[in-house]
Amino acid sequence: MITIGIVDDHSLIISGLMHMLADLTDYPILFTANNGKQLIAELDRQLPGVLLLDIELPDSNGIELCTAILKKYPELPIITLTNHDEIVYVKKMMRSGAKGYLLKGTDKETLLKAIDTVYEGQQFLDRQIEQAILQQTISGKRTSIAVKLTKRESEILTLIANEFSNQEIADKLFLSVRTVESHRHSLNQKLNIKNSAGLVKEAYLRGLI
């Protein structure tokens, strides 16, 4: 038997999951929560065998919440259940410690397979996500030769991803702000990106950071 915890701010999603698991005695629902605060309170009382966690909650960022939960309960298997099919979200959630990634609307068979898989300590990705990653990997291999970053560019890109300003990057690397701006321009040119958000996302997708 694997007990289930569900966290989602949409009552229809919770109702749908409860209905899907209603006739399965091996997968009883231990609790449901609508936000991060409720979730933490529930976890302090009882741990489920597997937690289904949405990325977007009214009071929490699912990625940060996942990291915080696993810091306190490192053995808890977490499956991301979301509408976000962008690879950047997949990478962030898996890096934060989630064992699985499913898209909302997944079928019963896939959900149960995901629950069983992560409960056994293995990773599980939605089939659609697997295909997207494969496609991205193939595309990345085609473009990897063209995208070569210098050591300094890689350092700056990592700091940009961690939300450092140009001045903070300059201070940390003992450079002038003008030099940092020059490196950022070079990164934008190499990755064909026009702003910081796009720069970081593209860097994640290409596995550069």
From TrEMBL:
Biological process terms in GO annotation: phosphorelay signal transduction system; regulation of DNA-templated transcription
Record bears the keyword Phosphoprotein: yes
Keywords attached to this entry: DNA-binding, Phosphoprotein
Organism: Parapedobacter indicus
Highest taxon listed in the record's lineage: Bacteria
The keyword Membrane appears for this protein: no
Lineage: Bacteria, Pseudomonadati, Bacteroidota, Sphingobacteriia, Sphingobacteriales
GO molecular function: DNA binding
Name the UniProt record assigns to this protein: Two component transcriptional regulator, LuxR family
Chain positions found as 4-aspartylphosphate: D54
InterPro entries: CheY-like_superfamily, NreC/VraR/RcsB-like_REC, Sig_transdc_resp-reg_C-effctor, Sig_transdc_resp-reg_receiver, Tscrpt_reg_LuxR_C, WalR-like
Record domain HTH luxR-type: where: 142-207
Pfam families membership: GerE (PF00196), Response_reg (PF00072)
Annotated Response regulatory domain residues: 3-119
